[in-house]
Amino acid sequence: MKxxxxxxxxxxxxxxxxIKFPEHHEVVFIDWLIPEQNEDFLxxxxxxxxxxxxxxxxxxxxxxxxxxxxxxxxxxxxxxKVVIMGSIKSDREKSRLIKTGQITRIPKLLPVKFFNExxxxxxxxxxxxxxxxxxxxxxxxxxxxxxxxxxxxxxxSDWKFDxxxxxxxxxxxxxxxxxxxxxxxxxTIKGGTHLFPATKSKEVSGILKGVFE
Length: 213
Known about the structure:
Elements: E1 2-6, E2 26-29, H1 41-49, E3 58-63, H2 65-76, E4 81-85, H3 96-104, H4 106-109, H5 117-130, H6 137-140, H7 146-158, E5 168-172, E6 187-189, H8 196-199, H9 201-211
């Protein structure tokens, strides 16, 4: 069976490269698309979902913003199982920072040039505080198109979703981006920051082996 995987905001699949997926499944990575000008979220989800062959059973796995994306895709093309890592099941699980962005509309008001290459590098430097032991932080965030970054942050801030109890959630207990205190995860990675798929890959691999048996 195929496992379709969507990585995090601005991240390529290096953040997931140490994970060992069950050998009897085929892993298919779905790259982020650059949003069209003023593209609405549903239209974008439809385009992302085009890469999925739903003529046969499949699984969905999403990390961070990818976790939000696979839950939206699941509404269009239902999967056998949906697993999210370092992500949220509903808007009720948003952090205080993200909720503030939704209320104040700050992400929408920021100009696209705010998200240029220089700003992206500064943003990535701040991510080091989330996981200072990871020297490869800059290598994980390769999708740096300014419009994509601005659009994505807006959509995360505005995202509203009723929890699907069938979604399997894996969280790190040291995650600052999506704090575990707002969630009731099925699996908790002890000492896991938001980058736990890279830093705790052995434990994550074991969990996924059981989930995708």
